[in-house]
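Below is a filled-in request sheet from our internal design queue. Each sheet records the structural input a requester submitted and the sequence that came back. We keep these sheets so that new team members can see what a complete request looks like end to end.

REQUESTER: design group, bay 2
PRIORITY: normal
MODE: inverse folding
CHAIN LENGTH: 490
BACKBONE (tokenized):
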């Protein structure tokens, strides 16, 4: 059983939780829900003793295992020369059992003697999940377990968690996945800084929360009308007499108290728009690849890749984990050398690159300093974009290392959109995003007028983005989605 009793926690002046309490009973499957940056990953850090509450206490009498959001930075990976040693760090598991789990997550091409550090983000996430499931802890904490994972991997994880009889606390922005797994929701209320409890799956939570939000919006509108009437009354009161002056002061005090107690509108009720700067001019074909080939040891990943990106065209790069999507992107961006073939860029090409592991960030910088350094813009140009990307004023002075994965994603996309890149290359940009943030990023990318190459395991996002062509790996198959552009030769 887990009990949180009146816990409060803050980063500097930013309050994350304020005297929040909740209980999780043994065997419950709980979804931890809330907007990006509201404190989901922070709560996991509190439960794993990485952080301590400023006040209140957490009572936990069960052994737990934790799979973090950014597995690439998992401390357990450090110093593990082989996959076997990483999975068996605390216990010894038979090889056949490890290999059975690896086959379930389409990792059968890997060997237990391989070094896990060079693997892709999706492969590392799968290994971390295998490690946690084999340990069979009394309480399992999973922070975005479907990040970087393909459709087949999602189904396998869903099946394993359905059979899991012990306590589970899960963070996921895959809403269908949540619906099929959980029977209770802890919602981190960003407006009230509390942790609210809802019974049922994610769909039941949405219904109950909408009812509460609708009631809150009605209450706010009633109070706003009252405030308007009181302000009108203030203008009519003559303050010359002692009685009039006293009445005016009383009414002003009442008005101030009502305004101070007025809650914020639910985030979902706000209207957000983004205006983007135009991309730099480029030729009709910003970049194309010719017979790109790449192998790792004896395993060939890419073979004869021919891909042409045209001006203003959006291209989706699709396929399961480990087939070379990130490898191809790194070759195109110049971060990796192909074994053979050519990358032929336009003379005026300017590439903006979003990486799924945030290696382009200096984690010690503040949000505002990072954007200023990368864009060479003043704060008056930067702040409006960051506010539109849901960064509060306090967040601008916060260190990047303290941000959630979703906040880092929004920051990275905002930084790219503030510049005049004419080709955006995006490696899993929706991985850490909640529903509202996905909508925000989607609308920004739909407005972008340059060329785009995007990797995503989120089919709904790709469809809504309305890409012009899809390139499938490992088949090396090009599919033209619209007839707006002529088909590229393979």
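RETURNED SEQUENCE:
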């Amino acid at each position: 059983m887990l009990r949180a009793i009146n816990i409060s926690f803050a980063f500097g002046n930013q309050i994350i939780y304020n005297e929040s309490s909740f209980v999780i009973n043994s065997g419950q499957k709980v979804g931890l829900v809330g907007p990006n940056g509201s404190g989901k990953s922070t709560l996991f850090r509190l439960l794993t003793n990485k952080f301590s509450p400023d006040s209140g206490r957490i009572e936990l009498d069960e052994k737990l295992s934790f799979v973090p959001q950014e597995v690439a930075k998992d401390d357990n990976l450090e110093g593990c020369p082989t996959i076997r040693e990483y999975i068996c760090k605390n216990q010894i598991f038979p090889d056949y059992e490890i290999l059975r789990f690896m086959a379930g997550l389409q990792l059968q091409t890997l060997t237990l003697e391989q070094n896990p550090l060079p693997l892709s983000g999706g492969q590392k996430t799968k290994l971390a999940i295998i490690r946690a499931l084999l340990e069979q802890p009394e309480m399992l904490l999973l922070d975005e377990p479907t990040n970087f994972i393909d459709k087949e991997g999602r189904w396998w994880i869903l099946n394993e968690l359905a059979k899991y009889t012990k306590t589970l606390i899960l963070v996921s922005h895959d809403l269908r996945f949540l619906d099929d797994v959980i029977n209770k929701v802890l919602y981190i209320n960003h407006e009230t800084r509390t942790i609210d409890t809802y019974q049922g799956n994610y769909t039941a939570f949405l219904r109950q929360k909408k009812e509460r939000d609708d009631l809150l919006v009605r209450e706010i509108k009633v109070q706003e009308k009252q405030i308007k009437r009181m302000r009108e009354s203030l203008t009519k009161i003559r303050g010359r007499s002692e009685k009039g002056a006293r009445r005016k002061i009383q009414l002003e005090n009442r008005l101030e108290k009502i305004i101070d107690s007025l809650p914020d509108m639910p985030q979902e009720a706000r209207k957000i728009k983004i205006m983007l700067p135009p991309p730099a001019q480029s030729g009709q074909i910003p970049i194309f690849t010719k017979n790109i080939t790449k192998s790792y040891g004896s395993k060939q990943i890419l073979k004869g890749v021919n891909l042409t990106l045209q001006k203003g065209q959006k291209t989706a790069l699709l396929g399961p984990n480990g087939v070379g999507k990130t490898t191809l992107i790194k070759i195109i961006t110049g971060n990796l050398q192909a074994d053979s073939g050519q990358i032929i860029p336009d003379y005026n090409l300017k590439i903006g690159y979003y990486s799924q592991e945030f290696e382009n960030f200096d984690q010690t910088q503040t949000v505002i300093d990072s954007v200023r350094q990368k864009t060479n813009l003043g704060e008056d140009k930067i702040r409006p974009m960051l506010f539109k990307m849901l960064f509060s004023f306090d967040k601008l002075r916060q260190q990047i290392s303290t941000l959630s994965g979703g906040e880092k994603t929004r920051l990275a996309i905002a930084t790219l959109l503030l510049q005049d890149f004419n080709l955006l290359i995006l490696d899993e940009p929706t991985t850490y995003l909640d529903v509202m943030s996905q909508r925000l990023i989607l609308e920004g990318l739909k407005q972008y007028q340059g060329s785009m190459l995007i990797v995503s395991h989120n089919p709904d996002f790709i469809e809504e983005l309305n890409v012009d062509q899809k390139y499938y790996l490992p088949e090396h198959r090009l599919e033209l989605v619209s007839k707006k552009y002529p088909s590229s030769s393979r």
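SHEET NOTES:
- The CA atoms of residues 311 and 329 lie 18 Å apart.
- The first strand starts at residue 2 and ends at 11.
FILED BY: M.R.
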